[in-house]
Design goal:
Number of strands of chain C: 10
Structural class of chain C: alpha/beta
CATH topology of chain C: Rossmann fold
Shape of chain B: globular
Strand order of the largest sheet of chain B: 1-2
Largest sheet of chain B: 2 strands, antiparallel
CATH class of the largest domain in chain B: Mainly Alpha
Largest sheet of chain C: 6 strands, mixed
Radius of gyration of chain C: 18 Å
Number of helices of chain B: 12
CATH topology of the largest domain in chain B: Arp2/3 complex 21 kDa subunit ARPC3
Radius of gyration of chain B: 25 Å
Number of domains of chain B: 2
Distance between the termini of chain B: 50 Å
CATH architecture of the largest domain in chain B: Orthogonal Bundle
Oligomer: heterotrimer
Chains: A mainly alpha (about 250), B mainly alpha (about 325), C alpha/beta (about 240)
Helix content of chain C: 40-55%
Distance between the termini of chain C: 43 Å
Number of domains of chain C: 1
Number of helices of chain C: 11
Chain lengths: ~250, ~325, ~240
């Protein structure tokens, strides 16, 4: 459970670095990431070349932004199970050979499994790289700037802020429970209602104190919660270059 | 049951994004129209969202088995906050999970919002939970309503995961096998989560009945049948349109994106892209038997080698930059 | 500066938490409110800024009646620092949090920036400005929360348990800092030593009513009075007694 705040802090401190990629406007980085993901997943089930070629993007970007890939790889493993499940099914259902390399035949299923894993890698790493190079408050500021309703932006900001506070609280409650229940590995099913219910009551009390604290400083629902960063020329250059690179890569493969 | 980007085709992903985005707009408008205390909702939504995270961290033992699980929370939030605020909260939670925890992805957000937000908060809560509880709140009704709603939400959610995956064409799993794998698993999960949701709601109801009462007695639960039919019709038409487009052309992602921006298909007839790529290919082709697409649907071996070389070049460049930076740091 | 007449207040109409309070505080005074848990200290502070509903009597804060129309102005003139900084620091960074109030009151971004930087250097937290609130220590959080309120230059400062969550050093630093602030201060606290250190006057609350109101040094030495109201002698005075024996 501590993992959550720990993981957040790791990515967050990466985002506070000062490289060319970090300085780039967050909106541009979001657009590029989104396009990259669409392009990564748009190849067919047996198109092995385009995902391999696209590996260039995360590797280059992580180097340019001085982000250690190791941290991102750990996270990638969490995302694997479901795609691998779908891929293994292909392995079973599609055994016809697609390639023959020196007598060993490689089936359609195997190729599609590899393609799925590669696509998962590309899409997950792309998102993580966005996070490792952009401060989250900047991302939320972009949301606000795109005229996404205040109520949503503020909810987003608050959830992110209280994530660590409430997980810590749940963590303390959880361990105080386990300390008094030495033979149990986790919370007993029948105590779960009371346990979570308590957490809910505490959290809602906190919400009302929070509301009071916000009101005390003149808040109302239309207040802005973010500071803004202007778009500069080099941002557009970055957008243009990334787009070109990606278009060329997809066109070739 | 988060969908991952890799399991989606751009067509399915973007369609679901559009569906979910319109649901978000609708919910925002509803909150503004129905709630004078809109601003009081915001801290509740923020803390409520964080709560979902915290609740998911708590493992509990599932009776009779040695394993442990955790809860999801769509229905729970809907009861505590009301359908529209809870929907927006779930959306925010999913955005954060996609961005910060690599749970689901950016493109898959649309699907995830639909499966875990629209279904429990905007469909099941007003159509199933609210009618059961309408006659008055008590322990038994709360329990029945919670268990039923959670089970049905999860079943529908699992079903749409199956549909989204199959329509994207990334897996060779036959529909029947896939569905017989997914539904029973989610039935088991649903029953456990339903029991816990019920226990939590009963506890909160006993400790602070007013927290549930206001939400349940308020006007904002229960959609009229007309509206539900209208919403479902819109979703069906949009999904149908996207699917037929997908079936007829199977446009690749880039084309799809360009089409979205320009609104015209003529501009990017398949030929154009292929011509451009053929030109680039002529210039860059250094593998003699390189072919653009092999007959059997896969890339030719030389294509793969070419891709690998590109990738190696990028890796090499990366290494050089890294090396230079290290030397710079040392000096 | 602050005057309450026959004030009754509570979270709902049925049950009053505060009963017939008559308090009057002059400009520049520093007053402690003490009392056992649940005596109504926090509720009193919340009532003064219009968060807990007034059921009877009236309040004048900084010359304004506490009514709905006056609330924005009152909240600007009277700054409330919450007991738990986690309730108060909800913005992405410390900078944004301190800037939150001035932005809400429509200051331009330049003015916001200069005032935030000024208050940060006064509190010696300039290096924390870009940090996230949940990565601060207890003492740092407290200073940030205080700065976020003081940046609006209130005339009256309401503090709820300012010394909670602090280690002895941070507590000492906070006391020194508060002593130097020119504002009128109303401090709700269990920390009677802090009250002795900072305040000339103390109000003892018991079950929502005033049990005593007077000179800090005198009242906090009155062991009988303190015991009746569920309090104990301040530690510093206990030592004094022991050494006298």
């Amino acid at each position: 459970m501590r993992l959550v705040s720990g993981e957040l802090i790791k990515l967050e401190s990466l985002a506070e670095q000062d490289t060319f990629v970090h300085k780039c406007h967050p909106a541009i980085k979001i657009i590029v990431t989104f396009l990259f993901i669409i392009i990564s997943v748009s190849g067919g089930r047996y198109q092995l070349a385009s995902p391999i070629a696209l590996l260039a993007y995360p590797w280059l970007l992580s180097t340019l932004s001085a982000t250690p890939l190791k941290i991102l790889h750990q996270r990638f493993i969490w995302a694997l199970p479901f795609p691998v499940f779908a891929g293994i099914a292909n392995l079973i259902f599609e055994q016809a050979p697609l390639y023959t390399l020196g007598g060993i035949s490689i089936s359609y299923g195997l190729v599609s499994l590899i393609v799925l894993v590669l696509k998962t890698y590309l899409t997950v790493i792309a998102v993580l790289l966005l996070l490792a190079t952009t401060r989250w408050q900047d991302i939320f500021a972009v949301c606000e700037r795109c005229h996404i309703p205040q109520i949503f932006c503020q909810t987003l900001t608050l959830i992110y802020r209280y994530l660590a506070v409430l997980t810590d609280e749940a963590w303390r409650m959880y361990h105080s429970y386990l300390l008094r229940a030495p033979r149990k590995k986790a919370i007993h099913f029948k105590d779960m209602g009371t346990f979570c219910g308590q957490l809910i009551l505490r959290s809602f009390d906190r919400a009302s104190r929070l509301y009071a604290a916000m009101k005390c400083r003149g808040w109302n629902s239309s207040s802005s919660v973010a500071s803004k960063q202007p778009l500069v020329f080099s941002d557009l250059v970055y957008l243009f270059c990334s787009l070109c690179a990606v278009i060329v890569l997809t066109a070739i493969f | 049951m988060h969908m991952a980007d890799a399991l989606l085709s751009p067509a399915v992903g973007l369609t679901m994004c559009a569906v979910s985005a319109s649901a978000c707009v609708y919910a925002t408008k509803k909150i503004k129209a129905e709630n004078e205390l809109e601003e009081q909702q915001i801290p509740l939504m923020g803390v409520g969202g964080a709560l979902v995270f915290a609740a998911q961290m708590i493992n509990f033992t599932i009776p009779l088995t040695g394993s442990s699980g955790h809860i999801g929370g769509g229905i729970l939030l809907a009861v505590l906050l009301g359908p529209y605020p809870s929907f927006l909260t779930i959306v925010a939670v999913l955005v954060i999970q996609a961005l910060f925890f690599a749970d689901g992805g950016l493109l898959a957000l649309g699907c995830n919002i639909f499966n875990m937000g629209v279904i429990p908060c905007l469909l099941i809560y007003p159509l199933l939970f609210a009618p059961i509880i309408k006659k008055g709140v008590n322990k038994h009704r709360l329990t029945t309503a919670a268990i039923l709603s959670v089970v049905v939400s999860l079943q529908l959610g699992a079903f749409s995961v199956v549909m989204e995956t199959l329509l994207s064409g990334v897996t060779a799993l036959p529909f029947g096998t896939f569905i017989t794998l997914m539904q029973p698993i989610h039935l088991a999960i649903g029953i456990v989560e339903g029991l816990i949701t019920a226990a939590i709601l009963v506890f909160v109801y006993q400790m602070r009945p007013e927290m549930l009462d206001i939400k349940l007695k308020g006007k904002n639960c229960g959609l009229s049948l007309k509206k539900v039919v209208a919403i479902l019709a819109v979703i069906t038409v949009m999904a149908g349109g996207a699917l037929s487009l997908y079936a007829s052309q199977n446009p690749d992602g880039l084309e799809w994106a360009i089409m979205g921006v320009t609104g015209s298909e003529q501009l990017i007839a398949n030929d154009t892209v292929h011509k451009v790529s053929a030109r680039i290919q002529q210039i860059t082709a250094f593998l003699p038997d390189y072919s653009f697409k092999s007959q059997n649907g896969g890339t030719s071996i030389s294509g793969i080698i070419g891709a690998a070389i590109t990738c190696a070049l990028a890796g090499g460049t990366a290494l050089i930059i890294k090396h230079k930076r290290q030397r710079k740091n040392q000096s | 500066m602050l005057k309450t007449t026959d004030l009754c207040a509570g979270y709902n109409m049925a049950a009053d938490i505060l009963h017939n309070l008559n308090i009057s505080i002059c400009e520049g005074e520093c007053v402690a409110i003490v009392g056992k848990n649940g005596a109504g200290k926090s509720s009193l502070l919340l009532t003064l800024v219009g968060i807990v509903a007034i059921n009877g009597g009236n309040i004048k804060v900084c010359g304004l009646d506490v009514t709905k129309a006056n609330l924005p102005e009152i909240r600007k003139r009277a700054g409330l620092v919450f007991q738990n900084p986690d309730d108060q620091l909800f913005m992405p960074t410390v900078y944004d949090d301190i800037a939150f109030g001035p932005r809400n009151y429509g200051c331009s971004e330049d003015i916001v920036k200069s005032t935030v930087l000024e208050i940060a250097s006064q509190f010696d937290i300039s290096e924390l400005l870009q940090r996230n609130a949940y990565r601060l220590s207890g003492g740092e959080k407290r200073l940030a929360a205080l700065a976020a309120v003081l940046v609006m230059q209130p005339q009256l400062l309401l503090l709820d348990e300012p010394s909670s969550f602090l280690d002895p050093c941070a507590r000492r630093r906070l006391i020194d800092l508060l002593r130097d602030l020119p504002q009128t201060k109303l401090i709700a606290t269990h920390d009677l030593d802090l009250a002795l250190d900072l305040c000339q006057r103390v109000i003892i609350l018991n079950q929502g009513s005033i049990a005593a109101d007077g000179n800090c040094q005198e009242l906090l030495r009155d062991q009988a009075l303190l015991n009746i109201n569920g309090l104990e002698l301040p530690l510093s005075l206990m030592n004094y007694q022991i050494s006298n024996i």
